[in-house]
Amino acid sequence: MKKVLKRVGIGTAILSMAFLSACGSAPTGSSSGGSGGTAGGDILVGLQFPLSGNEAKMGEDMKNAAQLAADEINSAGGINGKKIKLIAEDDASDPQTATAAANKLVSEGVTAVVGGYSSGATIPATGVYHQNGIPMVVTAANSQKISDQKFPEIFMINGTTVHQAEVATDYMLNKNHGKKIAIIHDNSGYAKDLAERTKAAVEAAGGQVVVFDAVNPDESDFSALISKLKQAKPDATYWTAYYKAGGAFIKQFKQQGVSGIIGVGDGSNDKTLIDIAGKSAAEGTFVTTSPTAEFLPEAKKFVEEYKAKYKQDPGPYSALEYDGIKVLADSIKRAGSTDKAAIVKALQSTDLKTLSSQVSFNSEGTLKKSNFIVLQVKNGTFALPQ
Amino acid sequence: MGLHLAITSDIFVQQLINALIIGSFYALIALGYTMVYGIIKLLNFAHGDLFMVGAYIGFTVLGKVTGTGGSLVGVIIAFIIAMIVTGFLGMGMERVAYRPLLKAPRLSILITAVGMSLVLENGVFAGFGAKPQIMPVTLPTNGFTLLGANITYSQIGIIVLSALLMWGLHAFIHRSIYGKAMRAIAIDQTACSLMGINVNKVISLTFFVGSFLAAAAGMMNATYYGNITFMMGFTFGLKAFTAAVIGGIGNIPGAMLGGLTLGILETIGTYTIGSEWKDVFAFIILIFLLVVKPTGILGEKVTERM
Predict the structure, then answer these.
(1) Among the listed residues A13, A14, A77, A68, the one whose alpha carbon sits nearest the alpha carbon of residue A43
(2) What distance in Å separates the CA atoms of residue B64 and residue B82, rounded to the nearest whole number?
């Protein structure tokens, strides 16, 4: 009896949800006139990133960059005669808000979505877009888990941990002519993943991983591990965890005089790393990081325009967001229509030179070629190595 | 990791120094735990946070004085101010949060201690934020090479200063009249008050001394590692508590020995089975030790007084 009641309850809930969602989508469906996202002859493109909360600055930067790209496209005549119209929704870097934001964009009838800052918020949102067949170009979020969902509509133009491991390995083995590599992480999901993928990449490239270990990031003393490193005489040491412990690690690394170079992953790409390590200890540390506008030679014009228009620096992910809009526009143009399936198909065959790299996707919807860059600490700031 | 790590003299000396440094920090904090436990049978879980508060006071003072005085003088001034202010903070904490509960069940006062710990952590968080603060002056990193190991003068300084503080405490407990009173109260509080000893005053003093030492450790830690956060006392407090238990809680030489033992155990753990397992290694030894000798290395079986 109880079971039956429970079933009835669930059934009612599902029915009412279906009813509600039908109500929600009905009016927009009629106003946009069938073919999604061409209201008033414009192509509606959804943007999703945090516009409130701690990460609001990132979203604001990305929104500005997207607008810059859209304005450029529109002033050059639009795509196939149609203009791009952007609709930004706030996901607050929060999974629940992101799902609501994604549903809102769907109900507004967007043709495609460009954005996604934090992976935690982007993952559930991609599910919503996938269900509605809406193509999305993910610009900042870079968790491997996004592509592991195998949603054919989702394309990532920021490199994942695989791409970062590739660039780190190339730098340590080829550019630095190293062979013996030490890798240290902190057992957090991201750092461990990057460490393991780097280990695999180093070994595949003929290098030798001499120390592979993890620290407790709450601790401040890593001296015992560093003495062990010193004895292993690595040619390069790669720290995949975050900047706070990373700064302390670099300081103690230099203090004990371990051989070889030291580098950090993008989790440590923060000025505080240099402050904690101290300017002299941090000098020469390499950093693998997502392509940031200020370090991209191709992005000089973009940075100037951005600064002129918004009176501020572009921020770390704006170049990728700009690229995202350009990649989407290129696909819509090649698809010849705003039919979503056709755009997805066109995205798959993308081969476009952007600010950050030559973008083309593999079958998983991630970049064929890594777009991570390597920076180096010089006089207390991050700079391009010479 | 596919590499044979032989223990040579350089690595032995280097690791010994590493162990002594971290062990000194543990020992100085453990002393406060063990003194308070010895005198009022309270596990003062806020003690690790006094270590943190000491570092923050030193940080604030250093920020004010480094502009004018030489950096070494500045550091010494900051050290002294941090230790004294934290000492008074410890006394205040005892007066406000613990003294009214001395006659209450032990569990109530233990909960209050956890509460005090949260108050200190979140108070500093509210004042300074979660971002790590960078010390304006850090200890010099120049030094010498001994048997192939890089040793800095700062490391020697930390070990020597810690030893001096511990020796001073030992002398204070055994030579001074207040130390005698502390030892007497640890044995029998009621009898002491009947003998005319001002028990509250001595308990207050115990908190002062414990907090004073924690602040010294906090300042040394901050200037040595170069950065501080509001949660830095948590891990150190827990480890120091472990050190106090290893040495035999309530026993002062035991706390010193326990701190150094834990430092050495962690270092051996890191070196032999890996950094991520060092805590597991240290705690396995702790459990083993407590099974064999429940009172810790130097702890003695004391008859219950209540």
Answers:
(1) A77
(2) 13
Give the model's confidence band at B133: pLDDT under 50 very low, under 70 low, under 90 confident, else very high: confident
List the domain boundaries for chain A.
Answer: 2-159+298-359, 161-289
**Domain range list for chain B:** 9-292
Amino acid at A110: V
- A155's CB contacts (< 8 A; 6+ apart) are A135, A136, A137, A138, A327, A347, A350, A361, A365, A366
Tokens of B142: 């120049």
CA distance A271 to chain B (A): 12
Say yes or no for a CB contact (<8 Å) between A224 and B271.
yes
User: In 3D, which of B135, B113, B2 has the Cα closest to residue B57?
Assistant: B135
Distance of residue A220 Cα from the nearest chain B Cα, in angstroms: 7
Over the stretch B171-203, which tens digit does the pLDDT of each residue have?
998 899 998 898 888 888 888 889 888 889 999
Instruction: Using DSSP bridges, classify how beta strands A43-49 and A112-115 pair: parallel, antiparallel or unpaired.
Output: parallel
Q: Note the pTM of the prediction, 2 decimals.
A: 0.78
Pick the closest to residue A199 from A249, A238, A225, A160 (CA basis). A238
Query: Which residues in chain B have their CB less than 8 angstroms from residue A256's CB?
Result: 14, 150
Contact across the interface for A224 and B19, Cβ inside 8 Å = yes
Pairing of strands B133-134, B227-228: antiparallel
| DSSP label at residue A79 | B
In degrees rounded to 5, what are phi and psi of residue A77? Answer: 105, 0
Q: Which of A289, A290, A275, A285 is nearest to A377 (CA)?
A: A285
Inter-chain touch A223–B21, beta carbons under 8 Å: yes
| Residue B28 contacts residue B214 (beta carbons within 8 Å) | yes
Contact A210, A181 (CB under 8 A): yes
- Could A223 and B235 be called an inter-chain contact, meaning their C-beta atoms sit closer than 8 Å? no
- Domain B9-292 class, CATH top level: mainly alpha
ipTM above 0.85, yes or no: no
Question: How do strand A373-378 and strand A381-383 relate by DSSP bridges?
Answer: antiparallel
Q: How many residues does chain B have?
A: 306
Name the strand (E) or helix (H) holding A57: helix A56-75
pLDDT in tens, B79-119: 899 999 999 999 999 999 998 888 888 889 889 999 999 99
A2-159+298-359, CATH topology level: Rossmann fold (3.40.50)
CA A196 to each of CA A124, A246, A247, A266, B274: distance values in angstroms, whole numbers, following the listed order: 26, 18, 21, 15, 16
> What CATH architecture applies to the domain A161-289?
3-Layer(aba) Sandwich (3.40)
| B305 band by pLDDT with thresholds 50, 70 and 90 | very low
Token pair for A250: 């670099």
User: Which of B1, B18, B234 is opposite residue A212, by nearest beta carbon?
Assistant: B1
Residues of B in contact with A210 (CB under 8 A): 1-3
DSSP H or E run through B266: helix B252-273
Tell me the count of A-B CB pairs closer than 8 A: 99
Q: Tokens for A14?
A: 């599902």
- How far is Cα B211 from Cα A181, in angstroms, rounded to an integer? 44
Could you say which of B229, B234, B267 has the minimum Cβ distance to residue A224?
B267
**Strand, helix or coil at A363?**
coil
